[in-house]
């Protein structure tokens, strides 16, 4: 079923309300003294939760994920720009949460395209290393490996 222009233009407002929920979520934790306190616990915004659970419960309507991605890549500028704006906001919040709270490492790698970066430098200044190989008929001990030099 085709969505009305009103639905399409209201999507950013609904997305912002969902972002507010993600930003203001709290969880209850026990302190060392046993007192229960409420602690801020921002949630990573996800397209699946937004479309499949949050939208139907809060605005009474939604679109399928397939439709979301069709609109994102489609030729209709209104739909495409609306979805791009929502997607950019969700990703910006997700990156901020991952960067500042160390949450969602797998989400960052799988959905945001982030990677672990390892700085691996060989600072060996001796570039002329000589290796002497001696052939022996002795048997290998249990912790040595047989290496073929053929």
Please outline the major beta sheet.
2 strands, antiparallel
Task: Supply the helix-strand structural class.
Answer: mainly alpha
Helix and strand element order: HEEHHHH
Q: Total helix count?
A: 5
Q: How much helix, percentage-wise, in residues?
A: 40-55%
- What gross morphology would you assign? elongated
Q: Termini distance?
A: 69 Å
Radius of gyration: 27 Å
Question: Average pLDDT across residues?
Answer: 83
- Overall domain count: 1
Task: Describe the 3D structure.
With 150 residues, the protein is mostly helical. Helices cover 49% and strands 7% of the residues. It contains 5 helices and 2 strands. It has helices at 5-24, 47-58, 65-73, 77-101, 105-111, and strands spanning 26-30, 36-40. Strand 1 (26-30) and strand 2 form a beta hairpin. Helix 1 packs parallel to helix 4 (77-101) and helix 3 (65-73) crosses helix 4. The longest helix is centred in the middle third of the chain and has 25 residues, at 77-101.
Please describe the structure with a list of short key phrases separated by commas or semicolons.
two-stranded antiparallel sheet, single chain, mainly alpha, 150 residues
SSE layout and pairings?
Layout: H1 5-24, E1 26-30, E2 36-40, H2 47-58, H3 65-73, H4 77-101, H5 105-111
Antiparallel strand pairs: 1-2
Give a short summary of the structure.
It contains 5 helices and 2 strands, in the order αββαααα. With 150 residues, it is mainly α. The protein has one domain.
């Amino acid at each position: 079923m085709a969505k009305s222009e009103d639905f399409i233009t209201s999507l950013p407002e609904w997305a912002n309300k969902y972002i507010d929920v993600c930003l203001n979520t709290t969880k209850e934790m026990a302190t060392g003294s046993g007192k229960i306190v409420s602690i801020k616990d921002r949630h990573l915004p996800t397209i699946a939760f937004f479309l499949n659970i949050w939208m139907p419960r809060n605005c009474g309507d939604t679109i399928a994920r397939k439709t979301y991605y069709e609109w994102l890549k489609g030729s209709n500028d209104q739909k495409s720009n609306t979805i791009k704006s929502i997607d950019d906001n969700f990703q910006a919040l997700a990156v901020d949460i991952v960067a500042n709270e160390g949450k969602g490492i797998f989400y960052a790698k799988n959905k945001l395209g982030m990677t672990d970066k390892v700085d691996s430098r060989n600072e060996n200044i001796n570039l002329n290393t000589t290796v002497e190989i001696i052939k022996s008929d002795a048997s290998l001990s249990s912790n040595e490996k047989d290496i073929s030099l053929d």
